[in-house]
Amino acid sequence: MSNIGNYEERLKNFDWSLSEKELDYKAGNVINIGWYCTDRICQMGKGSKMALLWEGQGGVEKKFTYNDIRLASNTIGTFLRNLGVKNEDRVCLFMDKVPELYLGVLGILKIGAIAQPLFSAFGEESLLVRMENAESTAIITQRKHIAKVRKIVDKMPFLKHIIVVDYDGKHPLREREVAFSLEEATPVENFEFFPTKAESPSLLHYTSGTTGQPKGVKHVHYSLISQYLTAKWILDIQENDIYWCTADPGWVTGTSYGIIGPFSLGVTQCVLDSGFGAEAWYKFVEKNKVTVWYSAPTAIRSLMKAGEEIIKKFNLSSLRHLASVGEPLNAEAVVWSEKVFGKQFHDNYWQTETGSIMISNYPGMKIKPGSMGRPFPGITGTILNPDTFEPINAEGKIGLIAFKPGWPAMMRTYWNNEETYKNKFKNGWYLPGDRATIDRDGYFWFIGRDDDIINTGGHLVSPFEVESALLEHEAVAESAVVSKPDEVNMEVVKAFVTLKPGFTADKDMELTIMNFIRKKLSSLAMPQEIEFVDSLPKTRSGKIMRRILHAKEWGEEIGDISSLEND
Ligand code: WT7
User: Fold this and answer.
1) In the prediction, which pLDDT does 294 show?
2) Is 564 inside a domain boundary?
């Protein structure tokens, strides 16, 4: 029996108070995610249950019970407090998927500070803009990433502490740098967590915008109410499950469903801190007897590419429930997973701003391969006419996805950017910025984004950010960045560039520019190709029309080009 039981039944009389009751939370009371994920589970008598099974590069293992993660988060929280970190200070986490990342988030939450996880593949420029925006007080990082922090440290007067979790004593630490070793620190038993309330800030996740700098999505402790119940009903996490979320906590999936959801449910989860590899992944499932697997379409397509032969080498019979998020999950991938694992991947849809899953295929519900499923009970979702912002009540018509605001995990604002936040609402609806259709059974089918953001392998890339990096190169006069089709990543980044007089467009130039921007961008945002052109299509007012370049790459109709300058 699945946790959700019958979806239709759940829709009737749904109330979020159901989740509040299960968590013993009453309006106005203290609610602290860090406490809920550790102390409460121990109080329920599960202190000796495994919380985290971690495997790093080269097969190193570390294991933590719920009591261990309670103590570790106390210890990290105490360390930060002793440094002077206060509630609502932003503490950036810039690490690979090491245990300190997971436990650090919990420790930060316990002292009422705001956890700001940033993907460890970010280059220094990406790091800087996000930390400048947040005015982060501290950053927790590893030796291997400290060079990037050192390059920008002079530009960050607000940053007081650079905490290194694996300092080996070999090279002297510099000003503001301090070592912290979880293994060597005395575990802190007695700890008073900060009495955060529902609306106290918890996490700050950065997401790419179409124009301008990345936006800091502010979440609050009350988000737990959504994350707990969606993890329970959608991911179907049950008492004896071994859960594996492949996402990195640098992104929202890795916190909402890689930390908060599973730990608040007191389940055992495992983490593999190494990149993708089909063999390695199957081996990990087999070894840990993973039962619930939450992954992403690009990973699934990569597994498909690796073929079925290698699957036969492993015993994957532990798998009970599979889910996927982040980008369109093509119907073939669903059909394939049923064929090879005997289980379908359940696609679901949400985003950094929504904080929790909004639309999903539920255990026990009929899956229509290629569809994202139906709104979670308690979520009112529809599609709107893009001109009037009125709901379209017609089957199969394309419109803007829209949700009635007010679910617990909804972002509360964009950090220092209230205006952009306000622009996400129209006619009383929240618009995530995607287009879809709804069929007669109420299933949502993803069509595409309603902006120029590129979703490559599940990672959002702002064309603006890539273009800005390109423009910093001395040879680049103008640039326009769009997506082009890709078999595995669905779409990848492509740049069009015009050069300044005196520079030659050739392979060498492409390489030079690539090397130049590699230092500024994360590897994910790197263009796969730079095409040199003599001019870029522009509107009469001089705005570059990415739309036209995009349409060409995808072999689509160009549409209305009446405002084109060079037509
Ligand atoms: C954007 C959000 C929280 C999920 C991880 C990414 C796209 C997400 C799907 C899906 C098609 C999807 C949307 C969305 N997206 N899930 N199931 N099918 N597209 O969070 O980085 O904030 O990205 O990813 O465009 O708005 P994110």
Assistant:
1) 98
2) no
